[in-house]
């Protein structure tokens, strides 16, 4: 091998080493992110999951050197979008805007294309939104939760609507039934809007609706709100009691949080979590959440992981008791 050949070979080795260094995961160099981040929203545009996701993406894009881009992948109660993240590389560039259905689906669906725990890294719980027990005021005379419980125990013709089998609206009603002995028939709809329309029209008597969805009709007097499903009252309706004031321990909230693929590197998780702490302390973000009847509740990765496990156990019991199943 002559001098020129040896020199070229040495250059190839050096170039190869440099290329390998550049190809190494960004988190190992402390430069994450060095390309756009996909935030997968497993729901249609316009809903609560999408609203929270876009709020996060906007703030991250304003403060980080690379944008966070929202991608909506709706369908199958969130399974389609969630599966994308389960199969994504564990590099921090594909993140899930997770929601309560992640923990419900684990027991509601017989076959999932992923393990709801083992295939994910739980980064941070960020927001909670309560549901609210609303009734058609022309069909249900009750004005308090206690009055409604007594009325529902003595009346076997009540019908409640929900946005679908296994949704938080459906299972909140089932949990309330389990805790109080109330009696009513479930009619699932393909979305909350259809259920609300029939509630307003008197075709169903009551609903455990998402608070932001019901707020306008409550304020207009078209629906009577009896109580929120969170453990404490909502700042959006401070005069509206929590159901827990009558039914101790009752607490059902739609939660939202960032979830990554399994084995997400710790420094990526820590950076995303730190950014969530920063974002949800911003006054304009708090103001936006208040208009939704939502509460910022940012927790650490360890706390979020623990919470997800607790939620899965709790919803498994409710799903079993309700008999709800989705193929």
How is the secondary structure organized here?
Layout: H1 3-23, H2 26-29, E1 37-41, H3 48-63, E2 68-72, H4 79-86, E3 94-99, H5 101-108, E4 120-135, H6 145-154, E5 159-162, H7 168-180, E6 185-188, H8 192-200, E7 206-210, H9 211-219, E8 224-228, E9 253-261, H10 266-279, H11 283-292, E10 295-296, H12 301-322
Parallel strand pairs: 1-2, 1-3, 5-6, 5-7
Antiparallel strand pairs: 3-9, 4-7, 4-8, 4-9, 4-10
Helix pairs in contact: 5-12, 7-12
If you had to describe this structure to a student in words, what would you say it looks like?
The structure is a single chain. α5 (101-108) crosses α12 (301-322) and α7 crosses α12 (301-322). The chain has helices at 3-23, 26-29, 48-63, 79-86, 101-108, 145-154, 168-180, 192-200, 211-219, 266-279, 283-292, 301-322; strands at 37-41, 68-72, 94-99, 120-135, 159-162, 185-188, 206-210, 224-228, 253-261, 295-296. Strands 1, 2, 3, 4, 5, 6, 7, 8, 9 and 10 form a ten-stranded mixed beta sheet that branches. The chain is of the alpha/beta class. It has twelve helices and ten strands.
Quick gist of this model?
This protein has 12 helices and 10 strands. With 327 residues, the protein is an alpha/beta fold.
Percent in helix: 40-55%
Number of strands: 10
Give the overall shape, derived from the CA principal axes: globular
What portion of the residues fall into strands of 2 or more residues?
Answer: 15-25%
Count of helix runs: 12
Q: What does the average pLDDT come to?
A: 88
End-to-end Cα distance, whole Å, is 67 Å
Derived structural class: alpha/beta
The succession of helices and strands, N to C, reads HHEHEHEHEHEHEHEHEEHHEH
Low-confidence stretches: 1-29
Instruction: Please give the largest β-sheet.
Output: 10 strands, mixed
Q: Compute the CA-based radius of gyration.
A: 24 Å
């Amino acid at each position: 091998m002559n001098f020129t050949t040896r020199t070229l070979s040495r250059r190839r080795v050096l170039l190869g080493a440099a290329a390998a260094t550049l190809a190494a995961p960004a988190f190992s160099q402390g430069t994450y992110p060095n390309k756009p981040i996909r935030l997968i929203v497993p729901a249609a545009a316009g809903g609560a999951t999408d609203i929270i996701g876009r709020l996060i993406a906007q703030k991250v894009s304003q403060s980080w050197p690379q944008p966070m881009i929202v991608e909506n992948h709706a369908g199958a109660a969130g399974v389609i979008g969630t599966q994308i993240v389960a199969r994504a590389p564990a590099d921090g560039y594909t993140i899930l805007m997770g929601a309560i259905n992640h923990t419900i689906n684990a027991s509601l669906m017989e076959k999932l294309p992923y393990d709801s725990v083992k295939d994910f890294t739980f980064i941070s719980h960020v927001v909670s939104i309560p549901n609210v027990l609303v009734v058609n005021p022309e069909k249900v005379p009750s004005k308090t939760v206690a009055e409604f419980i007594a009325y529902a125990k003595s009346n076997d013709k009540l019908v409640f609507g929900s946005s679908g089998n296994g949704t938080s609206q459906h299972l909140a009603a089932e949990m309330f039934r389990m805790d109080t002995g109330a009696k009513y028939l479930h009619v699932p709809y393909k979305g909350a809007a259809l259920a609300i329309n029939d509630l307003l029209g008197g075709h169903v008597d009551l609903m455990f609706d998402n608070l932001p969805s019901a707020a306008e009709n409550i304020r207009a007097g078209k629906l009577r709100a009896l109580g929120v499903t969170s453990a404490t009252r909502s700042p959006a309706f401070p005069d509206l009691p929590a159901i827990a004031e009558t039914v101790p321990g009752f607490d059902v909230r739609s939660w939202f949080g960032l979830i990554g693929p399994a084995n997400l590197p710790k420094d990526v998780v820590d950076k995303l979590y730190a950014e969530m702490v920063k974002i949800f302390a911003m006054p304009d973000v708090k103001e936006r959440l208040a208009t939704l009847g939502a509460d910022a509740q940012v927790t650490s990765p360890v706390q979020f992981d623990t919470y997800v496990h607790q939620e899965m156990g709790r919803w498994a019991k409710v799903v079993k008791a309700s008999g709800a199943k989705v193929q």
